[in-house]
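subagent[fold] <- orchestrator: predict structure for attached chain, return tokens only, no commentary.
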Amino acid sequence: MVFVNLQVRHKTFGLGTIVSKDGKYIKVKFDSAEKNFVYPDAFEKFLTLADGTVNDEILADLAATNEHKAKILAAKHEENVRAMTHGIVIPGKEGSSESEEEDSYRNSSDSE
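subagent[fold] -> orchestrator:
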């Protein structure tokens, strides 16, 4: 798909024209300014084509990006679970709700 000269609409900036696409970024020229957006993520929340639609190629790129993000999150979750089962403390996970629940259970059973 040719992105340069494609007319898009932004919720705040209004009508604009894509002036360049460089890797995962597109630059859109609006009346007020030029803005850079992450492609295709911007079409998920901020941009639509000038006619108010998003074409099939952009939707396919969005789906592929979201699938890739989901795989990364699943891999991180799996890594965290493996680490926790081996007693490894993950930075930022020290005060998890599971340990708080265990502590409150121990405290309540000690007082009985």
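orchestrator: received. Logging for downstream: The beta strands are 7-10, 14-22, 25-30, 34-38, 47-49. Residues 104-112 have pLDDT under 50 and may be disordered.
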